[in-house]
Fold:
Amino acid sequence: MTMRLSNQMLSRNTLGDLTKVSNQLYNTQRKMSSGKEITKPSDDPFGTTRAVTGRRDLEEINQLQKNVDDASAFQGVTEVALSRITDVVQRARELLVQGASDSNGAAERASIAKEINQLIETAKTEGNASYAGRYIFSGTATTTRPYAVGGTDAYAGDAGNIVRTIGPGVSIPVNVRGADFLGGDPTVTQPDGLLLTTLRDISAHLTGGTAADANALRTTDLQNLDRNLDNITSIRATVGATTNRLETATARLRELQEASSNNLSKVEDADMAKTLTDFSLQQAVYQSALKTGANIVQNSLLDFLR
Amino acid sequence: MTQISTFFGLQQTLRGLLAHQRALDVTGHNITNANTEGYSRQDAVMAAATPYDIEAGLLVDGGGAMLGGGVDIQAFRRIRDGFLDLQYRAQNMKLGEYTGTSDALEQVEQGLSEPGENGIAAQLDKFWSAWSAVANNPENLATRQNLVEQARILSGSIKDLDARVTTIENQVNAEYASVTGPNGDVKSMADEIAKLNGAIKFAVADGDQPNDLYDRRDVLLDKLSSLAQVSVTDLGNGAISVNFGDAATPLVNDATVTWPQTLTNPGGKLGALLQLTAPLVPVPPSTTPGTLESYRADLNAFAKKVADDVNLLHNPGGTGTNFFTYGAPGTEAASLTVNVAATGVRYATGTASGSNDIAIAIAKLRGGAGDQQYQALVARIGSDVRNTDRLESSASTLAGAINDRRQSTSGVSMDEEMTNLIKFQRGYQASARAMNTVDEMLDQLINRTGRVGL
Structure:
């Protein structure tokens, strides 16, 4: 059946179709100008939750990267301080071997003892190393100076671990406590056989002058110093391992960041090639709709009657 | 032999002239109303006039006959299909409902500003990062200051969204009140329908057909149908009774208007407005909350969850200071407040300056239940808007299609009216020509007969 067409129908339908096409054009234009496939949740409710999750992941990764950077810097300062303390131990060993030799008299030994005492202060100064205003060997008591240079050898820090989160749900301790290699922990029975007491012993034995002192210099003191060197080396190995782990974490976070950015972009960003194609198609449709609309509405039998 | 009046032909052609003149009038009426809203085209129904009955003696064998007397206008017909009106109003009611709903929900959606840099999700991300920053630098008061600022921004964003929902609810309530109020659309349309009922009844009693009054009444019914479900009963005398939504008494009955009345589930736009703002009754859960209220409930649950989770870690055992505070159930989002200053932020259970266990634990809440509740709310609002948009557009298409069919029946077509114009003009001319012929014939008889030899 042929439908009877009234004038209102023609104009209304033409207008309705034009509105529809221009709405599509508007949406496509919004996509193009914002570069986003999703500009509001109703564009794609599921995609929106994915976009929100994607942004959260990215923010988390950025924050984790900051955590890792902080932890790495902490490790760097620790490593420098430990390497200096290693130098101290090696210098002390040279002096000890020299002082233990029978060819030295009391005066020479006293001057060697003086240098050993200087080395003790150097070790304590390194033990007070700080990063960004925090004492790094002080446990979690980061605002307390762990060793009193020129004073007693007591460790003033605490036993706490400084923890940084370096991955989703992954937290690692990043600090080394001075009490673990320099010694002087008041909660441990003294002497604890760690670096400071060992150096103090050596200094005492050098100035003691008895046969027992000389014997101790050659035997127990040398053994103790070697043990401390081993201890520090092993602590440095741990720090090195942590640094490696942080580097791995950084690399992994970079990959995650790239993947998350890609995912977010896939969900959220407009496919420009497709959007542009859609746009020119819709524009063509709109123009032809305008043209036909103008013709349909204009023409009637009226035009042909005299 | 029965005689027929000499002037019979004049009378007959006169009828032709008059009938065509009336038909031209109707055509003119149609043309002028081509763009009038709700106008139904009219049609002058022509029929052969009652024949002149000659009982006997007309024919050669003495038999009678019926002699055609010309043409008469039988009626001015209004061309309209009442069934299409019913269909249109049912669809228009749905369109009104979905349009009302989607207008309000789209405003909520805009308030979310998701996905983006300014939404609550982004503020929440930054809030958790601020805790991480405190964990990295617990000795520094500035990081805690930044955390407190970020927490205030977050609670401010949550409050803003809640306030936006409230504003939209107020707008919706105000719109309902204004449409249904004493000077509102419902009342004024009902009054006009009642007035038209009176005029139509009067005309019908006189035997007239008040086509244009019917049209005006139908337009009003169409408009009412977008507000709520409308059902019409014909009272038989031209007047109608109109039931509106689920109101107990007919809105209009003949000339009586009963308004205001209580509506609970009227359908149409008013139904949508009521449904949007239906209050949430938490204990006992006796009614389904309106859409906007259920959003608010979700927002409250989210605010409470985030605050509780943070507080639990910030203030283990509950003896210290909570990080967030909030008010009575149902107002959590609106009353979410940061309860601590930078110096009061607890970032570790111990007192050591470098420990950060609490800050680390709170930073780990990122992506947890609170985040997910908010995400679910965003997804829910998104799907609701998408659904109502889709329903709105399909109702609009259907209403448009039915309206097209109605227009196809009742609408004025210029081409058709132009054709009619020519047709009736020619009919008028031909009738005049016929009359002219009779006139010439009579001239022959009267002026030239019996003058032989003059």
